[in-house]
């Protein structure tokens, strides 16, 4: 057992009806990773994240986070995690600050100024008193990250955090992730279908295709082995799909 | 406890609550206005004074309370599962049973709030329209002011039990269905069908007594007179059974529910 292992799934399997959406998934996320969970739309990324965060239940297999088994120790397991699953949802009629206040109520022993602290980290203080329904998608995404940071978790899981953002918004989020990882010692697990996006900030990747993990490796190792090919080309090599989507 | 605090905080921040309260007040004002306009033969008002008004009108608002409960429950359950805000709570160290308990408590608090408000509003509307009066009159019996207040309190307090039983049934419907309209529609249809059944004299009266609709309307009546021990015992058992059975059913649904928002 590797003590550096922060998130591990063991043969995680889930079907909807008779369609197997996740098939014997074995993920390994190390402490300090910015882990890119890659796959095209509909390959099972969000479903896997739902399983890892206990929002849905696997047919079989286990999720282990920092030594805690999700199946029989949900509260201690989830206490180590902050997450945005699918998209950041908040109460639109409340301000960003009030949304976080409600969440802070649910975290035992949280410090009073923690809300201001996390709003500061995602640079949202100036709009914190405005109702969330007036926020742009990028701001909601940042509020989602603030919410994930609230309990000072070891692991933050973000589901397509740059999806739908303009180039400036994407850049901000990516910079934020890199900075938080470096300064606060947070491990990130980020799903994305934008391969080159992830290449810039991730040190490790897992590639999921039709619910199966095809490859899991260090980004450096991958690009070295394939003599400097881009992650995108490697992806198409691995999944056996032509680079040309047409 | 923290979860319930959160629910109440959200409740007081939504416009819907204030619309509900406004509707209740307007209904009371309309009833009093109609009475004054000379349609008293159709109203439940026996004696035009403020202290007799809440108890005389206790059934008047049941339909509204039931609809408001349905909407509120759909809001805090179905809608949260649909819009994804329930993830905020479920991604915290909160068990599914804890979440259900907080929704149950919120529903009960909502019912208490609406009823208290309704009684107060009725007294106030009555005060403006008729003045306080010398004594409370209900079903032809005259009570002193103190006894009248006590009777009103007793009747409204008793009405909570079936209201909460009804709310628990709504919670089950809300937990099991995917959109808000279904919840409100199903609970309303249940209510109408129940009203119909409870009026069918071919069904033995003991069974009719057990219908939730009957309970909503008549449970508190048993407390007005003193000789209804059997009905009270039966009704308490019936209501507690509704609460227990639907709580357990909801818990089973909740525990296994896939959160796909
Ligand atoms: N509730 C559901 N019922 C049936 N199929 C679903 C459900 N949710 C997702 N799927 C299917 O599972 C597959 C993976 O979906 P998802 O995990 O959302 O993919 P991704 O996040 O990688 O885009 C898709 O083919 C999708 O159609
Ligand atoms: Mg997805």
Automatic annotation (TrEMBL), chain A:
GO molecular function terms noted in the UniProt entry: ATP binding; ATP hydrolysis activity
Alphabetized UniProt keyword annotations: ATP-binding, Nucleotide-binding, Transport
InterPro entries to which the protein is assigned, alphabetical: AAA+_ATPase, ABC_transporter-like_ATP-bd, ABC_transporter-like_CS, P-loop_NTPase
Top-level lineage group: Bacteria
Signal sequence residues: none
Pfam short name (any one): ABC_tran
Boundaries of every ABC transporter domain copy: 7-235
PANTHER family from the UniProt entry: ABC TRANSPORTER, ATP-BINDING PROTEIN
The family this protein is said to belong to: Belongs to the ABC transporter superfamily.
Name of the protein described by the UniProt record: ABC-2 type transport system ATP-binding protein
Source organism: Paenibacillus rhizosphaerae
UniProtKB/TrEMBL annotation, chain B:
Chain segments annotated as transmembrane: 17-35, 55-74, 104-133, 153-176, 183-207, 232-254
Domain of life: Bacteria
Organism: Paenibacillus rhizosphaerae
Stated name of the protein: ABC-type transport system involved in multi-copper enzyme maturation permease subunit
Keywords annotated in UniProt: Membrane, Transmembrane, Transmembrane helix
């Amino acid at each position: 057992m590797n003590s550096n292992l922060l998130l591990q799934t063991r043969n995680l399997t889930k079907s909807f009806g008779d369609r197997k959406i996740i098939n014997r998934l074995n993920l390994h996320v190390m402490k300090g990773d910015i882990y890119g969970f890659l796959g095209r739309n509909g390959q099972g990324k969000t479903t896997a994240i739902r399983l890892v965060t206990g929002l849905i239940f696997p047919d079989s297999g286990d999720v282990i986070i920092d030594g805690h088994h999700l199946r029989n120790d949900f509260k201690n397991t989830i206490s180590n995690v902050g997450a945005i699953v699918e998209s950041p949802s908040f109460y639109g009629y409340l301000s960003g600050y009030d949304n976080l206040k409600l969440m802070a109520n649910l975290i035992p022993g949280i410090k009073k100024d923690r809300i201001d602290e996390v709003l500061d980290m995602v640079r949202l203080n100036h709009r914190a008193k405005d109702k969330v329904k007036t926020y742009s998608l990028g701001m909601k995404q940042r509020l989602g990250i603030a919410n994930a940071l609230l309990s000072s978790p070891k692991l933050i899981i973000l589901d397509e955090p740059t999806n739908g953002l303009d180039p400036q918004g994407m850049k901000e989020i990516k910079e934020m992730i890199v900075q938080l990882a470096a300064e606060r010692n947070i491990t990130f697990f980020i799903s994305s279908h934008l391969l080159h996006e992830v290449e810039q900030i991730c040190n490790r990747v897992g590639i999921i295709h039709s619910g199966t993990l095809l490859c899991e490796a260090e980004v450096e190792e991958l690009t070295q082995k394939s003599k400097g090919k881009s992650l995108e080309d490697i992806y198409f090599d691995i999944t056996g799909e032509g680079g040309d989507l047409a | 406890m923290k979860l319930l605090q959160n629910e109440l905080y959200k409740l007081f921040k939504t416009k819907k609550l204030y619309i509900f309260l406004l509707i209740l007040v307007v209904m009371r004002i309309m009833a009093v206005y109609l009475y004054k306009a000379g349609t008293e033969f159709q109203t439940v008002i026996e004696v035009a004074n403020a202290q007799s008004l809440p108890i005389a009108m206790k059934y008047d608002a049941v339909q509204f309370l039931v609809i408001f409960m349905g909407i509120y429950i759909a809001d805090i359950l179905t809608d949260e599962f649909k819009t994804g805000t329930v993830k905020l709570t479920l991604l915290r160290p909160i068990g599914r049973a804890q979440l259900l308990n907080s929704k149950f408590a919120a529903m009960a608090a909502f019912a208490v709030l609406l009823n208290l408000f309704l009684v107060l509003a009725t007294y106030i509307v009555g005060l403006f329209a008729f003045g306080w009066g010398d004594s409370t009159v209900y079903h032809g019996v005259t009570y002193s002011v103190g006894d009248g207040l006590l009777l009103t309190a007793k009747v409204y307090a008793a009405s909570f039990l079936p209201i909460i039983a009804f709310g628990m049934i709504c919670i089950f419907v809300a937990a099991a269905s995917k959109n808000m309209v279904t919840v409100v529609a199903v609970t309303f249809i249940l209510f109408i069908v129940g009203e119909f059944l409870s009026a069918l004299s071919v069904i033995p009266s003991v069974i009719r007594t057990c219908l939730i609709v009957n309970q909503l309307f008549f449970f508190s009546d048993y407390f007005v007179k003193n000789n209804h021990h059997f009905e009270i015992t039966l009704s308490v058992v019936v209501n507690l059974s509704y609460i227990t059975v639907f709580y357990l059913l909801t818990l089973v649904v909740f525990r296994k529910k896939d959160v796909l928002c």
